[in-house]
Specification:
This protein is about 35% helix and about 15% strand. The longest helix is centred in the last third of the chain and has 28 residues. The termini are far apart. The protein is of the alpha+beta class.
């Protein structure tokens, strides 16, 4: 019974607030990524094993999170918890569940996320969405 959590109130179903640790390098929103020396790294644990698959080092947390998503789908299928559940990764899934194939698919998803972010950024710049300049 020592492992059971006490309920603070009967009507409170809200999850506890996230804890922020000063020394943590994990991202507060995305699963499977962390900050390492100014870059974002992504890795995933293999189901039923203690080993991890290294997915790579990326410039942005979004790229690393997309890499994690493809690997999670390849390893866990519909049970995967995704960072971007609205994204369609079906065409990027690896043909076989080997570490090398998963790593290659993850790199492809990260590159696609980077291209998508660049297109959005370029569209915002060309639409004049910034602050007007005083003349």
């Amino acid at each position: 019974m020592a492992n059971r959590r006490r309920r603070t109130s009967d009507n409170n179903n809200d999850p506890p607030p996230p804890t922020v640790c000063g020394s943590s390098t994990r991202h507060p929103v995305y699963h499977g990524i962390r900050n390492r020396a100014g870059k974002w790294v992504s890795e995933i644990r293999e189901p039923s094993k203690s080993s991890r698959i290294w997915l790579g080092t990326y410039r942005t947390p979004e790229m690393a999170a997309a890499a994690y998503d493809v690997a999670a789908l390849a390893l866990k299928g519909s049970y995967a918890i995704l960072n971007f559940p609205e994204s369609n990764y079906s065409s990027m899934l690896p043909k076989s569940p080997t570490s090398d194939d998963i790593r290659a698919a993850a790199a492809g998803a990260a590159a696609a996320r980077a291209r998508a972010n660049e297109v959005i950024s370029d569209a915002e710049d060309s639409s004049g969405g910034g602050n007007p300049v005083d003349k």
